Automatic annotation (TrEMBL):
Belongs to the peptidase S26 family. Residues 18-196 form the Peptidase S26 domain. The keyword DNA damage does not apply. This is Signal peptidase I.
Length: 211
């Protein structure tokens, strides 16, 4: 009888440990899933968005911003230069590595921080150092340097499911002028908040286009 009682206590203890372990593991997995699919806090590693963002600053990226709505003009986004589509079966090992870098504070060479200037149907033109949206100059007080057309021929219309992006630091930025239009599938999320440095904490300014 005493042995049965001891075995019963051991079973109860083992069950409790297993339940506790399962709960802890499940909580950890849920936390990782939420982090991977909702928010990331990367550190800026490039100068192409000066004077809006500088190297060393940290931002909050909302990965669900475009789950139920389309990208808008003025949104600051992080995009993946790779044209490969996202998804479990599309280069999963590469995607996991890139996501790991992004979520752990790195913007890799494939990840670029840019501003959406044109959305589907917009007519974009660049001439005389200015950007024209649907025939009107965009008032861009935040940019650094003049805007040149580079490799892309203008005027040009943004096709469906794509956006036209530029960096605020126009003379050094690698953007749609070389990369072409950015597919929705390449957008990792919208930058919604700056969390570092302390004196610049706040929401991200959005310029919608023609003012």
């Amino acid at each position: 009888m005493k042995r049965k009682n001891e075995l019963g206590k051991i079973k109860i203890l083992t069950k409790g440990i297993l339940e506790w372990t399962f709960t802890l593991l499940a909580s950890f997995i849920i936390a990782i899933v939420i982090k991977n699919n909702v928010f990331a806090m990367p550190e800026i590693k490039e100068s192409s968005m000066e004077n809006t963002f500088f190297e060393g600053e940290k931002v909050v990226l909302n990965r669900l911003s475009y789950a139920f709505k389309e990208p808008k003009r003025g949104d600051v986004i992080i995009l993946n230069k790779s044209e490969g589509k996202k998804g479990v079966l599309n280069g999963i090992s590469v995607e996991i590595k890139e996501m790991y870098k992004l979520l752990n504070g790195e913007i890799s060479r494939n990840h670029l921080l840019k501003r959406i200037v044109g959305v589907p149907g917009d007519l974009i033109d660049i001439k005389d150092g200015y950007v024209y949206l649907n025939g009107e100059i965009i008032k861009e007080f935040y940019i650094k340097g003049e805007t040149s057309p580079r490799d892309m021929k203008f005027p040009i219309t943004v096709p469906d499911n794509k956006v036209f992006v530029l960096g605020d630091n126009r003379e050094v930025s690698l953007d749609s002028r070389e990369l072409g239009f950015i597919d929705y599938n390449q957008i990792e999320g919208k930058v919604v908040f700056r969390i570092w440095p302390i004196n610049k904490i706040g929401t991200v300014y959005e310029n919608k286009g023609v003012n």
